[in-house]
């Protein structure tokens, strides 16, 4: 039987065209859904911490901040500038640093000077709004003892010094 079947000529031509050859499938909704699943939202604004005790030297400040959300963050953009009482604050140099952690130590600052800090979070989708601004103050520089004015007697000593800081210093600690 197989031999007889193979000897026959078989017409394999279809009498009607299949419907699927003419259809165009619209994947735009699926593509939009897939793109929305794969994208992450831009992060929320970070919260900058107030200055911590012992977080300053005469020339450096340690600034810390955090996030109150589970946002994906690639890095942070920390901005700062010296605080000025003058109206020409636009002329003050504004500095920007990119940081991976939620803290940064800024160096080469002026002693006993106020600096304003704010931070933004960045990821592939964009940048967050900036945090509230926080003011940090560097420690005063050590005073200079006026050695020519030092006087002493059996039960007392007079020591004079002068501050090299422009801004007033709250208090001094004298150690013997």
Write structural notes for this entry.
With 176 residues, the chain is mainly beta. The chain contains 2 helices and 12 strands, in the order ααββββββββββββ. The chain has a domain at 47-137: Immunoglobulins (Immunoglobulin-like), CATH 2.60.40.10. The chain is rod-shaped. It is 10% helix and 28% strand. This is FSD2 protein. It holds the Pfam family fn3.
Quick summary of this structure?
The protein is built from two helices and twelve strands, in the order H-H-E-E-E-E-E-E-E-E-E-E-E-E. The chain is mostly beta strands and 176 residues long. It has a domain at 47-137: Immunoglobulins (Immunoglobulin-like).
List keywords for this structure.
176 residues; mainly beta; Immunoglobulin-like; three-stranded antiparallel sheet; 2 helices; 10% helix; FSD2 protein; FN3_dom; FN3_sf; E3_ligase_FN3/SPRY
Question: Helix-strand pattern, N to C?
Answer: HHEEEEEEEEEEEE
Largest sheet: 5 strands, antiparallel
Rounded to the nearest angstrom, the distance between the terminal CA atoms is 120 Å
CATH fold label of the domain at 47-137: Immunoglobulin-like
Instruction: List how many beta strands DSSP finds.
Output: 12
Uncertain segments: none
Rounded mean pLDDT score = 84
Multimeric state? single chain
């Amino acid at each position: 039987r197989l031999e007889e079947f193979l000897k026959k000529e078989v017409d394999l031509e279809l009498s009607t065209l299949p419907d699927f050859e003419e259809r165009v499938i619209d994947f735009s909704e699926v593509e939009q859904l897939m793109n929305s699943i794969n994208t992450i939202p831009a992060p929320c604004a970070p919260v900058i911490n107030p200055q911590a005790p012992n977080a300053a030297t005469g020339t450096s400040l340690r600034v810390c901040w955090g996030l109150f959300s589970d946002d994906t963050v690639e890095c942070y953009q920390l901005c700062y500038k010296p605080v000025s009482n003058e109206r020409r604050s636009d002329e003050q140099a504004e500095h920007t640093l990119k940081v991976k952690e939620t803290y940064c130590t800024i160096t080469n600052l002026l002693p006993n000077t106020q600096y304003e800090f704010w931070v933004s979070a960045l990821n592939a989708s964009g940048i967050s709004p900036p945090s509230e601004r926080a003011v940090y103050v560097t420690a005063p520089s050590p005073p200079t003892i006026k050695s020519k004015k030092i006087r002493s007697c059996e039960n007392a000593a007079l020591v004079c010094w002068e501050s090299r800081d422009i801004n007033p210093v709250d208090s001094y600690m004298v150690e013997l």
